[in-house]
Amino acid sequence: MTDLSSIQPRSPIELYLKDLHERHLNFREGQVADYIPELAGADPDWFGISIVTRDGHVYEVGDTRQPFTIQSVSKAITYGLALEDRGESLMLSRISVEPSGDAFNAISLKADSGAPFNPMINAGAIATCGQVLARDGLSRIERILAYLSACAGRRLDIDEKVYRSESDTGHRNRAIGWMLRNFGIIDEEPTDILETYFRQCAIRVTCRDLAMIGATLANSGRNPLTHEQAIDPEFVDNILSVMSSCGMYDYSGEWLYRVGLPAKSGVGGGVLAVLPGQLGIGIFSPPLDTQGNSARGIRVCADLSRDLALHLFAPGAAPVNALRLSYDGGQVASRRHRAKKLHDLLRGKGHRIRVVELQGELNFPAFEPVIRFVLKQAPYCRHVVLNLRHVANIDKVALKLILDLRRRLAEAGVDMVLCNAGLFADDMIEQGIGREALFVDDDAALEHCENALLASLTGTVEPGTTRVPLAESTLLAGIDPADIEWLDRRMPEHRARAGEHVIRAGEAGDSLSVLIEGSVGVYLPSPTGGKPKRLEVFDAGRSFGEISLLDGSERSADVIALEPICYRVLDLALFEQLGSERPALKLKLLEQLCRQLSGNLRKANIEIAAFRE
Ligand code: GLN
Predict the structure, then answer these.
(1) Catalytic pick from 50, 59, 61, 75?
(2) With contact defined as beta carbons under 8 Å apart, do 156 and 148 qualify?
(3) Under CATH, to which class is 13-307 assigned?
(4) How many CB atoms lie within 10 A of CB 501?
(5) What parts of the chain have a pLDDT lower than 50?
(6) Ligand 1 atom nearest to CA at 292
(7) What pLDDT is recorded for position 114?
(8) Of 78, 203, 354, 466, which one is least surrounded by beta carbons within 10 A?
(9) CA gap 423, 188 in Å, rounded
(10) Which one of 104, 180, 248, 298 would you pick to mutate in the ligand 1 pocket, going by the greatest count of ligand atoms within 8 A of its CB?
């Protein structure tokens, strides 16, 4: 016998990365940094490549778990923390965001203001450290370490030896610190700020961590594995912008031209690159080129970008239309089986409910066509349901547009509700969408719209009919009064309290029930012992349990009274008695059941067609 589990096909992406790694293994240009003595011990052959997707899948090859110090890669992330602490305008007034055209350690400050050119060179990064606040009982470095750890999704630590080594020899950075003090860019003596900076550079990471931090940036600042909002999404674009224009020092222009990804390198040999909204890349290879970037890292990134067409400005990155699927309430009804009158009413007018399923990333380009679509439908409907089940993210602009759209529709008499809002529900409520407009799932939203539609059509507040005599039940529609009377005398009446089981899954099914008063829910017990799933609701006037009566199978679901109910039972014995005493009635009932079942099938077919569209 073949053991199926032994045939595990390799991902073509893993194979590609392996090949890429092999291709660059023998490239030996560059020198391991030695101006921080402790760095000189790095093995020039260490080489890792890691990619983390925005949903947290990790691809890695080579020395991706070898710890090394983050060095300047930290500058990009600490810039985010400083922005969170101080805000954009204060940060811009102290540290510019212009490429400097100088080396990373140049003592270059703007002639007029003394502001460092950008936060990615040492002058700007030291100034940035100075803007981070000691807060909540944590020192600056403790906050930086926690912030970076949240991005990486694991607790990082500091390589004390590298820190000491740099602190003992970092005279040039000290000179920069004092210059910053001289120009009032920092408000205190630079001593603590410089030690913070040296420690920040000595934070230990792996190649995988870099890719994970990149994926966090790609995922609106939320770590894709821990789901922690590590970076305020408001500042993600600020970080990525300075990475794009200044992240690779004096090579930044050519890097953007060739690789086209926001990136940051460090003298420890790390390179972190981000494809915004998509993925993070980490490369680790200690030998550096003359600009202080990982020589092999640059080549690998250039190949990666070309091979996988990752360049930001490559054509063809058209937004995915957020409109996944749309149907109306005539095609797909809620799982509530209503009394015949209301059921027929909905069949005729269900198209006044329009359900729109959205998908992917909701931002301006993706959501704009949805607005056009909904507005085009609006004259024909009273209710719109936006189903967010397949939505990965909603940015601020799209969120505002959803609210605006809802207001405009309301002015035109169209009520818009949302379902499956999940993680976005809190934001929506905060922005002023009432809780009553948010539903757990599409069925709940549909049912709400149907109720509202029926209320307006029938002029009653509560469209549900509480009592439907046996004669008016859907099952007995069109049957002779004499036959109904015959049945009425023989079908016993039962009652159940709210919450009581009427049918249990697994029991023998030997009867059908006609609901006279109240409603019941059909629940599928969860195989894992979780919350049972509500499949359907039957209102008074409808019957349930007929399938087991017809095919003799056991009950597949629980039926539970949703309120005090009254129901009449037609069991197998009575069904057989019908055969001998009233064969014509039995035939009629069977016809009626057939009609009901084919109605259900027809409904299911229409639904399937609507979902396939
Ligand atoms: N700690 C290093 C320095 O300040 C960081 C430089 C870098 O990685 N480019 O010199």
Answers:
(1) 75
(2) yes
(3) alpha beta
(4) 14
(5) 1
(6) 9
(7) 87
(8) 466
(9) 42
(10) 104
> Whose alpha carbon is nearest atom 4 of ligand 1?
122
pLDDT given for residue 368 in this prediction: 87
| CATH class held by domain 470-610 | mainly beta
257 included as an active-site residue: no
Q: What is the pLDDT of residues 453-485, one digit of tens each?
A: 999 998 876 655 578 999 999 999 889 999 999
What's the pLDDT at 106? 80
Percent of the chain scored above 70 by pLDDT?
97
List the chain domain ranges.
Answer: 13-307, 323-458, 470-610
State the closest ligand 1 atom to the C-alpha of 104, by its place in the atom list counted from 1.
9
Q: 163, 197 in Cβ contact below 8 A?
A: no
Which amino acid, one-letter code, is at 215?
A: A
Q: What is the model's pLDDT at position 341?
A: 85
Pocket probe mutation, ligand 1, options 32, 35, 39, 71, max atoms within 8 Å of Cβ: 71
Report the 3 state secondary structure along 167-192. HHHCHHHHHHHHHHHHCCCCCCCCHH
Which residues are within 8 A (CB) of 542 and not within 5 positions of it... i.e. 6 or more apart? 337, 338, 339, 473, 474, 514, 515
The average confidence (pLDDT) of the chain is: 92
**Residue 267 is a catalytic residue:** yes
> What integer pLDDT is reported at residue 9 of this predicted model?
73
122 Cα to the center of ligand 1, angstroms: 7
Ligand 1 nearest-atom number relative to CA 173: 4
Query: pTM of this prediction?
Result: 0.71
Note if 197 is an active site residue: yes
Topology (CATH level 3) of domain 323-458: Transcription Regulator spoIIAA (3.30.750)
134: part of which helix (H) or strand (E)? none
- Tell me the residue type at 538: F
